Protein backbone atom coordinates (compact mmCIF):
# COMPACT_ATOMS: atom_id res chain seq x y z
CA UNK A 1 0.00 0.00 0.00
CA UNK A 2 2.70 2.51 0.98
CA UNK A 3 4.75 1.62 -2.10
CA UNK A 4 1.71 2.33 -4.25
CA UNK A 5 1.20 5.68 -2.48
CA UNK A 6 4.84 6.59 -3.05
CA UNK A 7 4.64 5.65 -6.76
CA UNK A 8 1.41 7.64 -7.05
CA UNK A 9 3.10 10.68 -5.48
CA UNK A 10 6.07 10.37 -7.85
CA UNK A 11 3.75 10.02 -10.86
CA UNK A 12 1.80 13.13 -9.88
CA UNK A 13 4.99 15.03 -9.11
CA UNK A 14 6.16 14.22 -12.65
CA UNK A 15 2.86 15.20 -14.20
CA UNK A 16 2.53 18.44 -12.24
CA UNK A 17 6.11 19.56 -12.78
CA UNK A 18 6.57 18.40 -16.34
CA UNK A 19 9.34 15.97 -15.39
CA UNK A 20 7.57 12.76 -16.34
CA UNK A 21 8.90 10.31 -18.94
CA UNK A 22 7.21 12.14 -21.81
CA UNK A 23 8.15 15.66 -20.74
CA UNK A 24 10.25 17.80 -23.08
CA UNK A 25 12.58 19.23 -20.41
CA UNK A 26 13.05 18.93 -16.65
CA UNK A 27 11.47 21.53 -14.43
CA UNK A 28 13.47 23.59 -11.95
CA UNK A 29 11.17 22.91 -9.02
CA UNK A 30 8.43 20.48 -8.11
CA UNK A 31 5.41 20.87 -5.80
CA UNK A 32 5.92 17.69 -3.76
CA UNK A 33 8.78 17.18 -1.33
CA UNK A 34 8.75 13.61 -0.05
CA UNK A 35 11.09 11.32 1.83
CA UNK A 36 10.49 7.70 2.76
CA UNK A 37 12.06 6.10 5.82
CA UNK A 38 11.94 2.33 6.32
CA UNK A 39 12.76 0.96 9.79
CA UNK A 40 12.93 -2.81 10.11
CA UNK A 41 13.84 -4.94 13.11
CA UNK A 42 15.85 -7.90 11.81
CA UNK A 43 15.47 -10.58 14.49
CA UNK A 44 17.96 -12.92 12.81
CA UNK A 45 20.78 -10.35 12.70
CA UNK A 46 19.58 -8.65 15.91
CA UNK A 47 19.68 -5.24 14.27
CA UNK A 48 17.41 -2.38 13.41
CA UNK A 49 17.85 -1.60 9.71
CA UNK A 50 17.07 1.96 8.69
CA UNK A 51 16.90 3.27 5.14
CA UNK A 52 15.94 6.75 3.95
CA UNK A 53 14.94 7.61 0.41
CA UNK A 54 15.25 11.28 -0.54
CA UNK A 55 14.98 12.94 -3.96
CA UNK A 56 18.53 13.70 -5.04
CA UNK A 57 17.93 17.29 -6.18
CA UNK A 58 16.30 18.25 -2.88
CA UNK A 59 18.99 16.50 -0.84
CA UNK A 60 21.86 18.04 -2.82
CA UNK A 61 20.34 21.51 -2.59
CA UNK A 62 19.93 21.17 1.19
CA UNK A 63 23.45 19.80 1.76
CA UNK A 64 24.92 22.51 -0.50
CA UNK A 65 23.19 25.20 1.57
CA UNK A 66 24.34 23.67 4.87
CA UNK A 67 27.97 23.21 3.80
CA UNK A 68 28.27 26.34 1.63
CA UNK A 69 29.71 24.34 -1.26
CA UNK A 70 28.24 22.26 -4.08
CA UNK A 71 27.43 18.69 -3.13
CA UNK A 72 27.11 16.11 -5.90
CA UNK A 73 25.70 12.85 -4.60
CA UNK A 74 25.95 11.02 -7.95
CA UNK A 75 29.58 11.91 -8.69
CA UNK A 76 31.20 12.98 -5.42
CA UNK A 77 34.71 14.42 -5.67
CA UNK A 78 35.53 13.09 -2.20
CA UNK A 79 33.44 10.00 -1.37
CA UNK A 80 34.52 9.92 2.29
CA UNK A 81 33.52 13.57 2.77
CA UNK A 82 30.18 13.01 1.04
CA UNK A 83 29.53 9.92 3.19
CA UNK A 84 30.23 12.03 6.29
CA UNK A 85 27.86 14.79 5.11
CA UNK A 86 25.03 12.35 4.36
CA UNK A 87 25.49 10.44 7.64
CA UNK A 88 25.70 13.61 9.72
CA UNK A 89 22.65 15.14 8.06
CA UNK A 90 20.42 12.10 8.60
CA UNK A 91 21.64 11.46 12.17
CA UNK A 92 20.72 15.02 13.19
CA UNK A 93 17.26 14.82 11.64
CA UNK A 94 16.23 11.23 12.26
CA UNK A 95 16.25 10.47 15.98
CA UNK A 96 15.04 7.00 16.97
CA UNK A 97 14.19 5.67 20.42
CA UNK A 98 13.61 1.99 21.11
CA UNK A 99 11.57 1.36 24.25
CA UNK A 100 12.38 4.87 25.48
CA UNK A 101 16.16 4.72 24.84
CA UNK A 102 17.71 6.83 22.09
CA UNK A 103 19.89 4.80 19.72
CA UNK A 104 22.87 5.87 17.61
CA UNK A 105 22.54 5.24 13.89
CA UNK A 106 25.60 3.53 12.41
CA UNK A 107 26.09 4.67 8.81
CA UNK A 108 26.34 1.81 6.32
CA UNK A 109 26.39 3.82 3.08
CA UNK A 110 24.25 5.39 0.39
CA UNK A 111 23.38 4.65 -3.22
CA UNK A 112 21.44 6.27 -5.98
CA UNK A 113 18.28 4.90 -7.48
CA UNK A 114 17.03 6.84 -10.50
CA UNK A 115 16.35 10.37 -9.20
CA UNK A 116 16.63 9.47 -5.51
CA UNK A 117 19.26 8.53 -2.95
CA UNK A 118 18.92 5.70 -0.45
CA UNK A 119 20.91 6.15 2.79
CA UNK A 120 21.42 3.08 4.98
CA UNK A 121 21.98 2.80 8.73
CA UNK A 122 21.85 0.06 11.34
CA UNK A 123 21.58 -0.23 15.11
CA UNK A 124 22.27 -3.20 17.38
CA UNK A 125 18.86 -4.32 18.64
CA UNK A 126 18.93 -7.78 20.20
CA UNK A 127 15.30 -7.75 21.34
CA UNK A 128 12.29 -6.75 19.29
CA UNK A 129 11.22 -3.32 20.55
CA UNK A 130 7.72 -2.86 21.88
CA UNK A 131 7.78 0.87 21.22
CA UNK A 132 9.57 2.80 18.46
CA UNK A 133 9.59 6.59 18.68
CA UNK A 134 10.83 8.62 15.74
CA UNK A 135 11.64 12.31 15.44
CA UNK A 136 11.93 12.95 11.70
CA UNK A 137 12.67 16.44 10.36
CA UNK A 138 14.36 15.48 7.09
CA UNK A 139 14.42 18.47 4.69
CA UNK A 140 12.29 20.60 7.04
CA UNK A 141 14.86 23.39 6.97
CA UNK A 142 14.48 23.58 3.20
CA UNK A 143 10.82 22.94 2.39
CA UNK A 144 7.72 23.91 4.33
CA UNK A 145 5.70 21.52 2.15
CA UNK A 146 7.88 18.52 3.07
CA UNK A 147 6.15 15.29 3.91
CA UNK A 148 7.97 12.33 5.41
CA UNK A 149 6.53 8.84 5.05
CA UNK A 150 7.66 6.25 7.58
CA UNK A 151 7.22 2.49 7.70
CA UNK A 152 8.24 0.50 10.77
CA UNK A 153 8.31 -3.31 10.85
CA UNK A 154 8.80 -5.42 13.97
CA UNK A 155 8.08 -9.14 14.18
CA UNK A 156 6.39 -9.17 10.79
CA UNK A 157 4.00 -6.39 11.86
CA UNK A 158 4.28 -3.27 9.68
CA UNK A 159 2.94 0.15 10.66
CA UNK A 160 3.11 3.37 8.66
CA UNK A 161 2.51 7.05 9.12
CA UNK A 162 2.99 10.34 7.36
CA UNK A 163 4.44 13.48 8.89
CA UNK A 164 3.59 16.79 7.27
CA UNK A 165 5.81 19.79 8.02
CA UNK A 166 6.12 20.95 10.82
CA UNK A 167 5.05 17.69 12.56
CA UNK A 168 8.09 15.55 13.31
CA UNK A 169 7.16 13.03 16.03
CA UNK A 170 5.68 9.59 15.53
CA UNK A 171 5.21 6.60 17.85
CA UNK A 172 4.74 3.00 16.88
CA UNK A 173 3.71 0.30 19.39
CA UNK A 174 4.04 -3.41 18.75
Write up this protein.
25% of the residues lie in helices and 41% in strands. The protein is globular. It has one domain (31-173). It is an alpha+beta fold and 174 residues long. The strands form two sheets. The protein has a six-stranded mixed β-sheet, with helices on both faces. It has a four-stranded antiparallel β-sheet with strand order 4-3-7-10.
In terms of DSSP E residues, the strand content is 35-45%
The averaged pLDDT comes out at: 87
- SS element count, helices: 3
The percentage helix is 10-25%
Number of strands: 10
Q: Note the gap between the termini.
A: 19 Å
User: Gyration radius, to the nearest Å?
Assistant: 16 Å
Give the structural class: alpha+beta
* Most strands sheet: 6 strands, mixed
> pLDDT below 50 for ≥5 consecutive residues: which ranges?
1-27
**Number of domains as seen in the coordinates:** 1
What's the shape?
globular
Strand order in the sheet with the most strands: 5-6-2-1-8-9
Sequence of secondary-structure elements? HEEHHEEEEEEEE
